[in-house]
Description:
The protein contains 31 helices and 19 strands. It is α+β, with helices and mostly antiparallel strands. The strands form 6 sheets. It has a 7-stranded mixed β-sheet with strand order 1-2-16-3-12-6-7, with helices on both faces. The chain has a 3-stranded antiparallel β-sheet with strand order 13-14-15, with helices on one face. A 3-stranded antiparallel β-sheet has the order 17-19-18. 49% of the residues lie in helices and 13% in strands.
Amino acid sequence: xxxxxxxxxxxxxxxxxxxxxxxxxxxxxxxxxxxxxxxxxxxxxxxxxxxxxxxxxxxxxxxxxxxxxxxxxxxxxxxxxxxxxxxxxxxxxxxxxxxxxxxxxxxxxxxxxxxxxxxxxxxxxxxxxxxxxxxxxxxxxxxxxxxxxxxxxxxxxxxxxxxxxxxxxxxxxxxxxxxxxxxxxxxxxxxxxxxxxxxxxxxxxxxxxxxxxxxxxxxxxxxxxxxxxxxxxxxxxxxxxxxxxxxxxxxxxxxxxxxxxxxxxxxxxxxxxxxxxxxxxxxxxxxxxxxxxxxxxxxxxxxxxxxxxxxxxxxxxxxxxxxxxxxxxxxxxxxxxxxxxxxxxxxxxxxxxxxxxxxxxxxxxxxxxxxxxxxxxxxxxxxxxxxxxxxxxxxxxxxxxxxxxxxxxxxxxxxxxxxxxxxxxxxxxxxxxxxxxxxxxxxxxxxxxxxxxxxxxxxxxxxxxxxxxxxxxxxxxxxxxxxxxxxxxxxxxxxxxxxxxxxxxxxxxxxxxxxxxxxxxxxxxxxxxxxxxxxxxxxxxxxxxxxxxxxxxxxxxxxxxxxxxxxxxxxxxxxxxxxxxxxxxxxxxxxxxxxxxxxxxxxxxxxxxxxxxxxxxxxxxxxxxxxxxxxxxxxxxxxxxxxxxxxxxxxxxxxxxxxxxxxxxxxxxxxxxxxxxxxxxxxxxxxxxxxxxxxxxxxxxxxxxxxx
Length: 708
């Protein structure tokens, strides 16, 4: 009896007994696996029992509980350490541990892709995985430093790269890929971070109900009196134009003062010098002062700055010459008859120049910050390392108004969906081949057609946008829209008001275009596309920054840039190229996936909003993934494990089977009465086609257990 009891109840098969109440732990075991309703019902049952994790094969679906659950303790971590993947209930730790164990035994590289929409819990998931490795991996005193730096890089990047949005009080406004490097003993010895597309436009503009990046509020709330005095700042965020557009500088769920302390502590551990910190906060303060510069019109219609208070502070903090800075903000250099002359700006252009400087210095400082953290995480010895990469990247975004940023974010998701399906299909095919089981081709939606629409050379939307940005003459957002209609107007996944039928036309504005993504349709407003893609800084402003005495600004704006007369790459092209290289990095590694779901819009525990979740199940491609995973066999297990569990159901295998496990399983299933169409026997595993076959076996086992 002990032998039977021994490995029950803890593992997946044991949990099937309660399937009516708590659903199944693996969607692959859903009888009606193509029904979205069945999928949602299973998710709801589990969520109501505080079971926030469910598998689709080895992919983990995670629903944000919006409350503290007691499932992340050190005891829990130890429980999942070194345990076979399906032996315990679904958990983030099982995903983390499985990647780690396979990496150690097979000496290969892995990545864990965490995706989902804003507020679904991606950043928390990546922090939990990092903590799991910090606690469970072998360590030494020297490694402790690396561990602390890996963990503390998070609050620093969150302070400078996260903000309160309508959907999420701690929304990552950049994509992050972090490699954790391990030595041959499996100890974490270093790390490296890549960041993608920081949302610079937030620095100068926030929508109603949103904030700027956390660091501005942390500095004002937590910085000591002397520091603020030295920076020329006041405590009250209402005094700064760049902080009040969203009208919610104070948020009850955010403790800026406390977060400031954590960030300050992190700086000292990550190896920032006092000079670095002084220069860094000089830049943060300069951005706030820039936002308060006001331009007025002189009698010639040119912009002038009457109140010089803010500009004096910027001059001091950035170490730039006051009169040169003032001139650069109100004039631009243009070439006339092969010499450069200063042309005065009108008020609108002066505000544009001011905002461009604020965005440029913040964006480049963020890149400097990532590089600085990388320097402190770098492992200097040259012995071979294996890595586990964590990709925490913005999910598919559909807002009331979708702009250039959403276009880039959704293109990124389109590429990652392509990767997910390709890699899942490949893994399925390889397992079948390995086990000597015939592969049955699976029909699925290949979204390459949409990726090409966006990225194809000379023909895609990004190429058309770049052409408009670079061509001589008056290019506008509307001329860009016309070019799109001309060049991709006949594409099945593209539509504008002009091209739409009568019914669709009503929902598309004259300045909009609509893309039919794999996850559904999104309407983009073309206004601002050219400006955001160009991201130009007037040359004379660049000159001022290149000569700054602030060390960080000097590192960010190199004098060599001034000699380079070629136009810099556009933002969309830079993003496309960095995405291509990210995909290359991921293709060379073994994948694991975590899909995060946001159960309701109000961050309410226990509330399961069907409409919202159905929407995300679609956006995350979960039904498609399940279809691919279920196309052949719902369940597969190594012969040894299957026999160990169910041997009591057959007199020939109970209590002990003395031959090879494969033969034991064959005897066992013949005795139970499996029909030929219900299963296949591979080289090392049994493959069961239908969940009901497994359920019947499990129910028989449960009955047998009580008899025994």
